[in-house]
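Dear colleague,

Thank you for sharing your sequence with our group. We've completed the structure prediction you requested, and as agreed, I am returning the results in plain text so they can be pasted directly into your records. Please verify that the sequence below matches your submission; if there's any discrepancy, let me know and we will rerun it promptly.
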Amino acid sequence: MVGHVTLDGKALSATQILEVIDEENKVIKFNVIEGDLMKEYKSLVITYQVIPKGENSSIVKWILDYEKLHAGIPEPTSSLDALIRLAKEMDDHHHHGRAR
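Please find the predicted C-alpha coordinates below.
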Protein backbone atom coordinates (compact mmCIF):
# COMPACT_ATOMS: atom_id res chain seq x y z
CA MET A 1 0.00 0.00 0.00
CA VAL A 2 1.28 3.45 -0.90
CA GLY A 3 0.76 6.14 1.69
CA HIS A 4 1.44 9.84 1.97
CA VAL A 5 2.42 11.80 5.04
CA THR A 6 3.50 15.39 5.72
CA LEU A 7 6.59 15.67 7.92
CA ASP A 8 8.17 19.04 8.73
CA GLY A 9 5.97 20.65 6.06
CA LYS A 10 7.13 18.27 3.30
CA ALA A 11 4.80 15.82 1.55
CA LEU A 12 6.44 12.38 1.53
CA SER A 13 5.43 9.01 0.16
CA ALA A 14 6.03 5.53 1.51
CA THR A 15 5.16 2.07 0.26
CA GLN A 16 4.26 -0.25 3.12
CA ILE A 17 3.56 -3.94 3.42
CA LEU A 18 0.98 -4.98 5.99
CA GLU A 19 2.86 -7.75 7.80
CA VAL A 20 0.71 -8.56 10.83
CA ILE A 21 -2.93 -8.29 11.80
CA ASP A 22 -3.35 -9.89 15.22
CA GLU A 23 -6.97 -9.37 16.18
CA GLU A 24 -6.65 -11.16 19.51
CA ASN A 25 -3.86 -8.84 20.73
CA LYS A 26 -5.13 -5.87 18.69
CA VAL A 27 -1.82 -5.42 16.84
CA ILE A 28 -1.12 -4.19 13.31
CA LYS A 29 2.41 -4.06 11.89
CA PHE A 30 3.60 -2.33 8.69
CA ASN A 31 7.01 -2.63 7.05
CA VAL A 32 7.99 0.43 4.98
CA ILE A 33 9.81 -0.90 1.92
CA GLU A 34 10.30 2.11 -0.36
CA GLY A 35 9.58 5.78 -0.84
CA ASP A 36 10.87 9.06 0.54
CA LEU A 37 11.20 7.73 4.10
CA MET A 38 13.63 5.05 2.94
CA LYS A 39 16.12 7.71 1.78
CA GLU A 40 17.23 7.97 5.42
CA TYR A 41 16.46 4.56 6.90
CA LYS A 42 17.72 1.10 6.06
CA SER A 43 14.62 -0.37 7.68
CA LEU A 44 11.45 1.07 9.20
CA VAL A 45 8.71 -1.01 10.83
CA ILE A 46 5.68 0.62 12.47
CA THR A 47 3.62 -1.36 14.97
CA TYR A 48 0.29 -0.22 16.43
CA GLN A 49 -1.32 -1.90 19.43
CA VAL A 50 -4.64 -0.97 21.03
CA ILE A 51 -4.81 -1.73 24.75
CA PRO A 52 -8.35 -1.55 26.20
CA LYS A 53 -8.64 0.44 29.43
CA GLY A 54 -12.15 -0.01 30.71
CA GLU A 55 -15.41 -0.02 28.81
CA ASN A 56 -15.06 3.28 26.94
CA SER A 57 -11.36 3.94 26.56
CA SER A 58 -8.17 2.48 25.15
CA ILE A 59 -4.51 3.31 24.89
CA VAL A 60 -2.71 3.10 21.55
CA LYS A 61 0.93 2.09 21.66
CA TRP A 62 3.18 2.79 18.67
CA ILE A 63 6.55 1.20 18.14
CA LEU A 64 8.91 2.56 15.48
CA ASP A 65 11.65 0.03 14.86
CA TYR A 66 14.21 1.57 12.52
CA GLU A 67 17.81 1.47 11.37
CA LYS A 68 19.34 4.70 10.07
CA LEU A 69 21.51 4.64 6.94
CA HIS A 70 24.26 6.47 8.85
CA ALA A 71 24.84 8.21 12.18
CA GLY A 72 24.13 11.68 10.71
CA ILE A 73 20.47 10.85 10.12
CA PRO A 74 18.20 12.40 12.80
CA GLU A 75 15.93 10.33 15.00
CA PRO A 76 12.41 10.03 13.50
CA THR A 77 10.82 12.55 15.88
CA SER A 78 8.82 14.07 13.00
CA SER A 79 7.19 10.68 12.46
CA LEU A 80 6.30 10.49 16.15
CA ASP A 81 4.84 14.01 16.00
CA ALA A 82 2.71 12.96 13.01
CA LEU A 83 1.43 9.93 14.95
CA ILE A 84 0.49 12.15 17.90
CA ARG A 85 -1.44 14.50 15.55
CA LEU A 86 -3.19 11.49 14.04
CA ALA A 87 -4.17 10.21 17.50
CA LYS A 88 -5.61 13.60 18.44
CA GLU A 89 -7.59 13.76 15.19
CA MET A 90 -8.98 10.25 15.76
CA ASP A 91 -9.87 11.08 19.36
CA ASP A 92 -11.62 14.29 18.28
CA HIS A 93 -13.51 12.37 15.59
CA HIS A 94 -14.66 9.61 17.94
CA HIS A 95 -15.63 11.99 20.75
CA HIS A 96 -17.17 14.76 18.63
CA GLY A 97 -20.28 15.99 20.33
CA ARG A 98 -19.89 13.76 23.41
CA ALA A 99 -18.84 14.86 26.86
CA ARG A 100 -15.76 13.04 28.09
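Summary note from our side: The radius of gyration is 15 Å.

Kind regards,
the structure core
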